User: Fold this.
Amino acid sequence: MSGLPLSCSTSASSPRIPPLSLSLTDASVRGVESLRARRDSFSVVGLIPESYFAPLDLPKIYGRVAPLHVDLGCGDGAFLFALAEQMPEKNFLGTERLLHRVKKACRKADKIDNMRVLRIETSYAVRHLLPKESVEKFHLLFPDPWEKRRHHQRRIVGLDFLRDIHAALVPGGVLRIATDHKDYFDQIQEVAERLQIFQLAVSDGAIYPSSTFEDKYKAEGIPIYRLELRKVSPVT
Ligand SMILES: C[S@@+](CC[C@H](N)C(=O)[O-])C[C@H]1O[C@@H](n2cnc3c(N)ncnc32)[C@H](O)[C@@H]1O
Assistant:
């Protein structure tokens, strides 16, 4: 990833301050500088977690206690925004590493009270920033497939990632996955079955709004594979 976190959102309870990056790379610093320079023109506001090394203070960030949905790799935030509008009684968080997509998602988050966007590496956020048993539902929609065999190790879903997801989910919480890659889908199923800490169910996704990539693949007639992993206690 290009650097550590940048986050944004609108919230009456959160300080409206410019985004901050802890990145050590020149490219990322340039990105943050240009973001600062342009912040007035696209209404991104920064919400800086009190620490990047401790779990997020969710009640403080949202100004309330409510069930949390997290969209991992939220892209332009279209799906998260639609869901947050549908469910004003819940809190929504998107993680995304690409700055231009974060900006698009932030413009949407700016329009509603219950959506936040965090520019960060997803696996870092799941492991270190999300409090244990805090997430009702994770959405992992069209994760980068890393098609070449030698790149499969870069795929986000593996044993450690699913263990971290399990720890962050509330009892009975769900990780919802959609991908257009059958091979990745099969791998996810296999890893999840091996762990024995999730109940697997095929889902049709019908109750949810479409994400941007989902719309694109549907329009192209590309098959979409879906799965829901429900947290259960480890078998002892
Ligand atoms: C194929 S796009 C899907 C975007 C969105 N979920 C959708 O369905 O429209 C994958 C997104 O995940 C982001 N992404 C991939 N790996 C990531 C990671 N490790 N941490 C944060 N974002 C990541 C990419 O930058 C990209 O925006």
Observations:
- The beta strands are 6-9, 68-72, 91-96, 115-119, 135-141, 169-179, 198-201, 225-231.
- The radius of gyration is 17 Å.
